[in-house]
Amino acid sequence: MNILLIGNGGREHALAWSIADSPLTSRLVITPGNPGMEAHGEMRSIAADDLDGLCALAIDISADLVVIGPEAPLVEGLADRLLKLDIATFGPRATAAMLEGSKEFARAFCARHNIPQPVFFPVSDYESACQHIDQLDGYCVIKADGLAAGKGVVVADDCRTAKAAAKSMLNGQFGNAGKRLLIEQRISGPEASLFALLDGKNAILMATAQDHKRAYDNDQGPNTGGMGAISPSPLLNEALEHQVMEQIVKPVVQGMASEGHPYHGVLYVGLMLTSDGPQVIEFNCRFGDPEAQAILPRLKTDIVSAMLATTSASLHHFDMRWDQRFAVTVVMANKGYPRSYEKGSIIRDLEAAEQDTDCYVFQAGTERAENGDLIAVGGRVLALTALGHDIASARKKAYEGISRVEWGNGYYRNDIART
Ligand code: GLY
Fold first, then answer.
1. Count of alpha carbons within 13 Å of 44, Cβ hemisphere only?
2. CA pair distance 303, 20, nearest whole angstrom
């Protein structure tokens, strides 16, 4: 099969690595990609927001399957356009991707289908925002409705912080994404993520993971896209997985179908495990990053077969097999991320980092300089994943790999997966 993969992050590097390994893949074209993905397919330079260019490329290579990595083109309707061209597409249509594209849509949907979630109030003006913030004594979460590159959420302890966040978002901090907000009651408990495949009618559990969102050790500092991950999540046992599938994922697949927006693709369920049971923090319509880098090395089933079962509504016949070991992923970021950072520092010795068996380096914000050097140009730059029979051994191997990377400007947390 000819497969087109769209995206350029560590998540897409992990996807490229898995797709290239499939016996069903005869040709893999990746756009815009990163240097780490060169080993897995043919590279193109069409950006992920150039929907015309991506459709033309899919036609040009006679794509049998297109895999859309990031959320923005899904929310913009890339899957709809490809499906109109009769090209099988892994990723939901725009109306289904609204589960991530509009937090208000997702909350209202959950309310209609009795999916457990915190109390929420949609607002579009500062006065109403203040009224609900006061009602919750400032102990609340302020969320921009639309996509804000993972930055549109403020967790507040007091009215002053909450109101300042609401004001800044309503005043255009995230452009149109913050024209509407959600003010949510804060709930407490540990967080975990569950990934499921949905084929429009059926849903199957894929895997679970845990992200480390804060920039610094001990969960300090600003929020990031994710500084590390563990899969499976040690917090989600089989009973909890079953509960999440029954109370959240199945109502999503059935509810989206009954409302005329069947969901095809991976559903990322961000959960808080409260004393009243798991509640939805958020949905995402794509794999997590860096969760994908932890999950995919554990996948034993052919990923392309799983994607085809998803696009052809035949997941009810599908069985996914997993390596029972733990995967620990540690992200190396440019010093300064998620704030400003230097671009262009040289990275060496990635081969040495992968010298242990079951140790993988996935690239994200890298580029090849004119002289061939690998340089860091993005915030999150590398993700190193190691597998082990327990979290401690996977963690040890991941940090040994990290210590072999020669990159002066690299920064990583020291406490990923510390138990
Ligand atoms: N790691 C969080 C996300 O992918 O949204």
1. 20
2. 10
Q: Is 169 helix (H, G, I), strand (E, B) or coil?
A: helix
Cα angle: 331, vertex 333, 339; to 5 degrees: 130
Pocket test for ligand 1, best of 268, 280, 287, 296 (most atoms within 8 A of CB): 268
Q: Is residue 288 lining ligand 1, measured as CB closer than 6 Å?
A: yes
230 φ, ψ (degrees, to nearest 5):
-125, 140
pLDDT single digits (tens) 150-200: 889 999 999 999 999 999 999 999 999 999 999 999 999 999 999 999 999
Q: What b-and-e string marks burial along 288-321, b requiring 16 or more CB atoms within 10 Å of the CB?
A: bbbbbbbbbbbbeebbbebbbbbbeeebeebebe
The closest residue, in CA terms, to atom 3 on ligand 1 is 288
Residues in Cβ contact with 344 at an 8 Å cutoff, skipping those fewer than 6 apart: 369, 375, 376, 377
Which segments of 39-180 does DSSP mark as H helices, in order?
A: 51-60, 71-75, 78-84, 94-101, 103-112, 126-135, 159-170
CB distance 211 to ligand 1 below 6 Å: yes
What is the value of pTM for the model shown? Answer: 0.97
